[in-house]
């Protein structure tokens, strides 16, 4: 028997998307703090301590789930949006940066999904948002962005966000795929995940792709993003004015001479 709230939804927009969820009376969704775009009259907001599931047993259960969320770098608290009205009401959640929102039904994925810690947006009330550690030593030591992942369990709808363009791949048994750790959005638990060093020292130091790749091995489905937020942030930082009002001229032949011509030198 399903323990999740069966919500209806609509995803709007192109590159800056938001998901609009319609709640029947008594239904609810859970989301990270700061994801809300708007709520209609009749929607009640509650802050909960822990992972958003309904299966917590007392204070210690809530404390343990909150501690797991703290390890992923997320807030100890989540927000639940209840429809306390008499008719259907809508609540909307916006993507944090350009990309795509992907709806995933956990019941169709075997009841569990592993996702990048920054990709979770919202889910039907009852979905548990926990932590997933890889048992492989390489992941733990070198995983970076992909080391501590979130584990979504349940049988309802969950919504994840991918930066840039989203690609879904289905890996056959034994098929491998190497990806940048930041480009991994989500994967089924049947897909094994490890971190491996780039082929040679020269490639690692001067190749521009970082020292390590995530190696995925099937069977199972994986979801990839073309623009991790860390990559977007680093490009913005590189192009931003530096201390003292000086700027970086990305791709400019003049470089520092441009600052002199502009009177910034």
TrEMBL record:
It holds the Pfam family AIM24. Coiled coil: none annotated. PANTHER family: ALTERED INHERITANCE OF MITOCHONDRIA PROTEIN 24, MITOCHONDRIAL, TRYPTOPHAN RNA-BINDING ATTENUATOR PROTEIN-LIKE PROTEIN. This is TIGR00266 family protein.
């Amino acid at each position: 028997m399903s323990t999740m709230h069966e919500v209806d939804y609509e995803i709007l927009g192109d590159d800056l998307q938001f998901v609009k969820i319609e709640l029947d009376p008594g239904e609810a969704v859970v989301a990270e703090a700061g994801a809300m775009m708007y709520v209609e009259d009749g929607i009640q907001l509650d802050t909960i301590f822990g992972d958003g599931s309904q299966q917590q047993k007392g204070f210690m259960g809530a404390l343990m789930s909150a501690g797991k969320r703290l390890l992923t770098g997320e807030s100890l608290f989540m927000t639940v949006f209840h429809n306390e009205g008499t008719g259907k009401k809508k609540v909307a959640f916006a993507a944090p940066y350009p990309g795509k929102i992907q709806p995933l039904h956990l019941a169709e994925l075997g009841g569990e999904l592993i996702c990048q810690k920054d990709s979770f947006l919202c889910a039907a009330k009852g979905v548990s948002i926990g932590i997933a550690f890889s048992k492989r030593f390489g992941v733990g030591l070198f995983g970076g962005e992909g080391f501590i992942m979130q584990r979504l369990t349940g049988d309802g709808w969950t919504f994840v966000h991918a930066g840039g363009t989203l690609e879904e791949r289905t890996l056959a048994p034994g098929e491998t795929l190497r990806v940048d750790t930041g480009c991994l959005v989500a994967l089924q638990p049947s897909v094994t995940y490890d971190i491996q060093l780039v082929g040679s020292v020269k490639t690692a130091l001067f190749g521009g792709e970082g020292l390590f790749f995530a190696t995925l091995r099937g069977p199972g489905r994986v979801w990839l993003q073309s623009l991790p937020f860390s990559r977007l942030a680093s490009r913005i930082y590189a192009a931003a004015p530096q201390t003292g009002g000086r700027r970086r001229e990305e791709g400019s032949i003049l470089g520092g001479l441009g600052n002199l011509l502009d009177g910034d030198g």
